[in-house]
Each structure stands twice: as structure tokens, then as C-alpha cells.
Queue: 3 jobs
Job 1
Amino acid sequence: MDGGDEEQGYVSHLKTVAEGEWAGWSYYPGGDPYEDLSGPFYFRIGEDGRPVCAFKAEKRHMNGGDFMHGGCIMTFADFALFVIARDALKDSHAVTASFSGDFVGSAYMGQVVEARGEVVKAGRSMVFVRGLITTGDSVVMSFQAVLKKTGPRTT
């Protein structure tokens, strides 16, 4: 979601959906070409004050076994990392320095896939994040990552 500078040729602008199934949810069109093709991925602040990310599983997200492709799950987790760490990164650009995840379940076409998590520690140059991706009450992936701040945000 946020790895570079303005010279990359794409700029993210936060948008909030006004109507339909995702009314009240926000997203970043134009922020990351790969995520734009995979998503849209949405987020909002949950009742507990923490961000929740979500998207609806479509045919294009499935693998040959008719359940969600692991690459799609990891792409969504990477998006969620930056949303979860949004406050800790408000003044900085950052990249994913390390990522680990455990696939513990499956997601299927038509399901709403959600990610929630927390910042474990926000340091001067690194932010440590962990989270869960779920569908309903079923866990799909647990993940943790380190985000490396790369410089001040100018936009």
C-alpha cells in the first residue's frame, strides 16, 4: 500500500464509499497497482476503535481447488498491515521488511473476508504488527510483520 515516493507514477487518495454494500467503508484507489487488481480492499474503524479490513471473495480470487488462492490472502494481509499500522505511520512512508503467516483455514467465493490486528510495538524506524484474517467465525490466516519506515511522508 505504501512503499514509495511520488515519482512512481501512482498516487493514493483515500475514498469513502457512499452507497451500496460497502457504504461507510474506505479504500485507496490508485495507491498500489497490484492491490488495485486484487481488490478493492476496504477498511473502517470498528466498534472497538480498531481498524477492520474486508473484501468479498470473487471467482478471480480462487485457486484451482475453488478456494481462495494463498497469494490473494497474503496480498490482503499486506494491505491490512498498513491499515492496522496507519496511526503509527501517519508521518512516514514504509515498506514490509518481513512477513510471516500461517494458513489455517480456507475462504470461498461469496464470503466476506476480514482482517483485524494490532500494532505490537511502534519504534522510531520499525513497526511490529500482528493480525488474523477470518470469514465469519473461521480463521483463515494468522500473520505478523515488521514494517520499515523509509522516510517522511510529504503528501
Job 2
Amino acid sequence: MTVKSAESKASSTAETTRRVVQEFLAARIAGDTGRLVALFADDVDWMLAENPGVPWIRPRSTGAECAAQSEELAEHTVAEDARASVDTFLVDGTDAVLMGHLSGTVRATGKSFEGPFALRLTVEEGRITRHHLYENSMSIAGACTPS
């Protein structure tokens, strides 16, 4: 393989990763669970710090389970108060990292949460195989705890 073809393949891989992640973000914003199921691989390396007091945070491993997280989050939070901004979107081959800030309000308690987040996604063969989310779990747990 020549250097030029290796660079072209790497560029094509990064473009696919960027496209799939953009589709993922659009589907999350639209609440399109069907599209999310299609974007996730059948088996996903899902990581989100366990937080027993937060109903939408639980272990997941299938594409359908991962896609359902969006619906579960919507059931337990106030849609009008949900905010997420992406400040950084980095792509390196099959990996993408998004960093930003999120906030919302838990429907059951009326309490707010907020904080920075980092999301690492891996895209292989056009589907998301890794979803690792790092967020302010203390703020979210506090917002889920009744007064």
C-alpha cells in the first residue's frame, strides 16, 4: 500500500466516523429511536458510571438498549429544560470525542443538574460500537434525590 492510499483510507475512515456521529447527534435531538437502533451496532461497549439513583443510567450492551436510553432520559426529565452544547468534536480514524456542557431538570423532583461531559464514540463498519460517557454524575444523582 502506498503512502497516498493509506492517507486516503484514513481520511475516508475519519469522514465515515464524522458522518455517523453527526447522524447520531441528529437522531438524539429528534428523538428518533429507530434511527438510533440502526446506528448502534448489535453489540456495544457501553460505559456510563453506574448511578443507582438515576433511572435512565444502567448497564446496556445491545444497540436497542443503547438507543432506548434516549427515550428513558426523556421520560424522566423536562424537555423544555434540556440543554447540551458541544464545544469540541475530534475525530481520529474510527474514534470521535465530543466535549461540552449539559443541563436539565428531573421531572419527579423538579431539581436541576448541570456540568461538563465528554463522550467517546467508536464507529466501525458504519455503526457505533463504543459509547463511553463521562459526566457530572454527582449533580445528576443529587437532582434525582427527593428533598
Job 3
Amino acid sequence: MFELQTPPEPVQDPTPLAGLVLPSWDLTVGLINATVQIDQMNGDGTRRVGTAFLIDAPRPNGEPRTVLVTANHVLGGMPAAEARVGWRVESPEGGWRFSPEPLRIRD
């Protein structure tokens, strides 16, 4: 049915990594810092919670703009026109606090 195959020998890259310059921006840390919580009260004491992230997406004319990106099911489960975006604010001592603010999600 299936023929057994011998995997190929790995090819060594002749380019040494010593001259490799690491990026000054860490993608993992950048994504964590760009991630926010969005939530909405359900009216029965519970709340719908989801995550989103923020990206810089300048308008075609170059004007700065920040865009909130989340999954359709997150906003689809929030029937009211307003939710909250939960900002993480770092304290001088190095801890974090949650600081929610209103967010209009539909007209």
C-alpha cells in the first residue's frame, strides 16, 4: 500500500549565523501588548468576553488610524451597540491593572 521511504539527509546551510542581525522588535511581545479584552454585560449578571488586537492601518491618504481586529462570533454574540474595551495599564511598580472603557461596536 505505502512504500517506506527514507527521509533525506538534512542539508547544512553554508551561511554562518554569526552575522545574523536580530530584529529590534519582538513579535511575541508586540502581539501580547496589542491584545485587548472586549466584553459586554448580558443582562443576567453574566458577560460575553472576547479578545481582539490593535493594528496600525493608515488610511490611503496616509492619515494615521488604529483598527481593532476580532472574530465575527465575538461581536455577533454581543447584541447591544456598546461594549467595553479592556486596556491593560502598567503600574510604576511593574504590576498591571485592568482599565475598561466604552467601545461603540455598531450603529
